[in-house]
Known about the structure:
The protein has helices spanning 2-21, 33-44, 51-77, 81-101, 106-118, 120-131. With 132 residues, the protein is mainly α. α3 runs antiparallel to α4 (81-101). Residues 18-34 have low confidence and may be disordered.
Amino acid sequence: xxxxxxxxxxxxxxxxxxxxxxxxxxxxxxxxxxxxxxxxxxxxxxxxxxxxxxxxxxxxxxxxxxxxxxxxxxxxxxxxxxxxxxxxxxxxxxxxxxxxxxxxxxxxxxxxxxxxxxxxxxxxxxxxxxxx
Length: 132
């Protein structure tokens, strides 16, 4: 039962990471007024995204999604908690490496996700690049 719980949590965490960086991350979400104000303030402090960063983000996002999908498949086959934790750690390391190989830091990657959630124009640019 503990392994099943770990698999579920790990799968959810990896899936959330993949979705947070994929097209679903840009879906409209209902937010309270207070939450929207806090997000607006946080995104106001983030540097604007350049065209080069959009290209880097899209390339990194594709890699991260592939890594997450592979990790989710591996988690279904994990025999115990230790194996599941190792799969999760390896996936996280691979995601960070993929983001860095595309020229972004993990922090900047996350900032772009945050900005895209708050800026519909940026979200549309990212979607267009991902689909094109």
